[in-house]
Amino acid sequence: MMTTESKNIGICPECGAEVRLKKTPYVGQAITCRHCDSVLEVISRFPLELDWAEASWDDDFNDTEVDRADRRKSGR
Q1: Dihedral, CA of residue 57, residue 27, residue 31 and residue 6, to nearest 10
Q2: Which one of 9, 13, 51, 69 has the fewest beta carbons within 10 angstroms of its own beta carbon?
């Protein structure tokens, strides 16, 4: 996660480019970096922090897979 001092400028964690937003974003908002096309998510508004949006999707997927494996083992 990377930040800058301005409230509407963040740093892309993939390519390091500044990501400038015209309006104040909300936490959880998905943003695409214009330089590298990475899908990012707003983690914090003040200061603006961005992180990869896919990371949370991977966590949800992995949790689902673990739950399925546990159900198979227990016979549910």
Answers
A1: -140
A2: 69
What's the pTM value of the predicted model, to 2 decimals? 0.61
- Residue 20 identity (one-letter amino acid): R
Concatenating the DSSP letter of every residue in 10-75 gives EE-TTT--EEE-SS---TT-EEE-TTT--EEEEEETTTTEEEETHHHHHHHHHHHHHHHHHHHHHT
**Burial class (CB within 10 angstroms; exposed 0-12, middle 13-18, buried 19+) of 45:** middle
Residue ranges of domains in the chain, CATH in brackets = 2-74 (2.20.28.160)
Residues with Cβ within 8 Å of 16's Cβ and at least 6 positions away in sequence, in order, are: 2
Record the tokens describing residue 62, joined without a space: 């992995």
Q: What tokens were used for 11?
A: 């740093």
